[in-house]
Amino acid sequence: MTTYADRYAAGTGGGTWSLVVPLKPLARAKSRLGPAVGGPLRGRLALAFAEDTVAAALASPGVRDVAVITDDPAAGAALAALGARIVPDLPGAGLNAALAHGARAVRAVRPAARVAALNADLPALRPAELARVLAAAGQFGRAFLADAAGIGTTFLSAGPGVELEPAFGGASRRRHLSSGAVEIRLTGVDSVRRDVDTGEDLAAAVALGVGPRTAARWLPAAG
């Protein structure tokens, strides 16, 4: 009998990268977005962001598979339906612990995997732009992409045999630089840098062009 691990090891795409995408329980996700969109819509938008992120990632030619680290059953079911592997957040110790756990889960199946952490709130993500970032990251042992503000991080990679060492949150660009990761300096990859935490971020993502799930939930509400 073919197991899930067999199918996951074989990969769902033609690329070489396994992506690790963390997602909080929807009831707690995107708290800073609440004032702009309202409480009832906040969780639904957080899921839509993640769905559009995962769908675009799986469509990227550089991506082999996506592991979503979440304990939210509704989000897990929706993202699994798109083709993601769902990994429970067993550490339950915050974002960086979840990412390190996800990287270990990937390498338990493929020990020599190229692994990258990717934010779950990239609703404008373009597969071709992600592929360019992955190609650049493949030249280094560890590499990262700063967010649109140049303060945080939306992407962190580790090549075969290299630990991910995530240091996300707040001024993570500086921490990743200090840890020895190489900053990826590409133009024309705005969709990979545009994470959404606030109403202003959401407006910027909409201007880039958000994915269909985010558009379906937000554009009618925005009028």
Following the backbone from N to C, one meets helices and strands in this order, namely: HEHHEHEHEHEEHEHHH
Whole-number count of domains: 1
CATH topology description: Spore Coat Polysaccharide Biosynthesis Protein SpsA, Chain A
Within CATH, the superfamily carries the name Spore Coat Polysaccharide Biosynthesis Protein SpsA, Chain A
Radius of gyration, CA atoms, in whole angstroms: 16 Å
- Calculate the terminal CA-CA distance, rounded to whole Å: 51 Å
| Number of strand elements | 7
* Global shape: globular
Mean pLDDT equals: 92
Strand order in the sheet with the most strands: 3-2-1-4-6-5-7
EC number: 2.7.7.105
Keywords: GTP-binding, Nucleotide-binding, Nucleotidyltransferase, Transferase
Family: Belongs to the CofC family.
Domain MobA-like NTP transferase: 53-143
Can you put this structure into words, describing what you see?
This protein has one domain (12-217): Spore Coat Polysaccharide Biosynthesis Protein SpsA, Chain A. Helix 3 (39-59) runs parallel beside helix 4 (73-82). 45% of the residues lie in helices and 15% in strands. The longest helix is centred in the first third of the chain and has 21 residues, at 39-59. Strand 5 (142-146) and strand 6 (153-158) form a beta hairpin. The relative contact order is 0.17. It is α/β, with parallel strands linked by helices and 223 residues long. The protein is built from 10 helices and 7 strands.
Sequence-ordered SSE layout with sheet pairings:
Elements: H1 4-10, E1 17-22, H2 34-37, H3 39-59, E2 63-69, H4 73-82, E3 85-87, H5 95-109, E4 114-118, H6 127-137, E5 142-146, E6 153-158, H7 172-178, E7 182-183, H8 190-193, H9 199-208, H10 212-222
Parallel strand pairs: 1-2, 1-4, 2-3, 5-7
Antiparallel strand pairs: 4-6, 5-6
Pfam families: NTP_transf_3
Binding site for phosphoenolpyruvate: 153, 169, 172
Domain MobA-like NTP transferase: 53-143
